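Budget justification aside, the reviewers requested a transparent look at the raw inputs and outputs of the sequence design task funded under Objective 1. We therefore reproduce one unedited record. The lines immediately below are the structure tokens for a 119-residue chain.
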């Protein structure tokens, strides 16, 4: 969709300057601003079902890490092994509004899968 090679998409994503703008839609869905323009895509015309928790998704100039398995119309570009929901009632989410988020490349083995996806 971007016209970029997969590695160029990954590099663009990793170079993003992400900040937690707000929480919404589902528990722990931290909407991250700062998605680089070359990979900013509109939402899909139709949602994909059963997108697993931990998916890194992008759309409309934003990025987020899913916390639940659910449908989404956003583009899946990777996976994160780090849960956003902490289980701690005093601090239920890993991030606070205003936090800066930096993604880094990890090996597929860190996800417990051989899919080759990156976060």
């Amino acid at each position: 969709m971007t016209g970029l090679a997969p590695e160029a998409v990954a590099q663009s994503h990793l170079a993003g300057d992400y900040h937690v703008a707000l929480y919404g839609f589902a528990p722990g869905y931290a909407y991250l601003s700062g998605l680089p323009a070359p990979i900013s895509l509109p939402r899909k015309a139709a949602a994909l079902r059963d997108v697993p928790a931990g998916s890194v998704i992008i759309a409309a100039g934003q990025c987020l890490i899913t916390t639940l398995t659910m449908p989404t119309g956003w583009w899946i570009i990777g996976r994160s092994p780090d849960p956003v929901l902490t289980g701690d009632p005093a601090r239920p989410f890993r991030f606070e509004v205003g936090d800066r988020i930096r993604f880094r490349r990890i090996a597929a083995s860190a996800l417990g899968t051989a899919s080759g996806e990156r976060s």
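The longest helix spans residues 6-14. The first strand starts at residue 18 and ends at 23. Computational costs for records of this kind are itemized in the attached budget.
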